[in-house]
Amino acid sequence: MRSLNFSAGPAQLPLPVLLQLRDELLDWRGTGASVAELSHRGKPFMALAEEIEADARALLEVPDSHAVLFLSGGATTQQALIPMNLCAPGEVADYLVTGHWSKVAIKQAAAICSVNEVASAEGHAFTRLPPVSEWRRHPDAAYFHVTGNETIHGVEVFDLPESDGTPVVADLSSNIASRPMDFSKIGLAYAGAQKNLGPSGITLTVVDRALLAREGMPRPDIFKFASHAAQGSMLNTPPTLNWYVLGLCIRWMLNEGGTRTFEQSNLEKSAALYSTIDQSSGFYTNPIEASCRSRMNVPFVLHDSALDAVFLEESERANMIGLKGHKAVGGMRASLYNAIPLADVHALCDFMQEFQRRHG
After folding, report:
1. Is 195 in the active site?
2. φ, ψ for residue 105 (rounded to 5)?
């Protein structure tokens, strides 16, 4: 029996994807081999790569003005590549600080270029977004980086900033494809796959082709987005099996109805869990301002931290995994990515209510 998996990532994959992966693992499309065993330069995989890009463009509604890249590594790799590619020597990049992963992005960038912190919510323990009135954008910033969803603190940016002539760069690792987004207004978006798109080890990057012409910092070819785009994301040997599974997940999301369908589903799932928390009379609490509560990651604490270990033990006995909160904030966290069905969230809510009755 499969567990109800609320892990923040690597996260649960759709069951139809896992079943198709199992069925095709030894003989993919009559080749007599696994995708993991095929040359990335061979016609079968080259055709697959084209299919996956077309599906990704359809799912995310990516305009022709933007390139779609499938790159090795995770989001942290992209956080280093972005200033290398978009900042020239001596230039400054703007960063909005909304939680842990914003700070990680700044740490990567600060080793390469000058960073201007536009505003930070750290003084409010990352329980809200910095109001626009507090923003201090650099007039000549090379780009403006925003973390679309903070998986640890449970804060989501639902309206990305206007570019005002400065390209917006968005880390969408944990909320990509969770709702429709206008990629024509984003200069560069990146998403580690292991939350909403597939397995770890591969990243989807969408970049305005105009930005590919930037000179950036002196760097080897392998660190140039333009070089990867020119070679169809095959400048070096890509993680082919990861790419294939990512493609299965994207096709599954298309078959389920696309981002508008998942937006409604994610609204229902997150509303059910937040309602359980808010109606618990303080037994469970979530400190995030309602306007920016994440639909993807819902952290909560119990009124008595001595019950944390009991909650985790009993939830595992109830066949639920991945509920332990990040060490930075403690407590619990339930991640509600696209592959999590509403029934699983209802089961979690029922468990939480029963746990409160027994331990409240």
Report:
1. yes
2. -60, -40
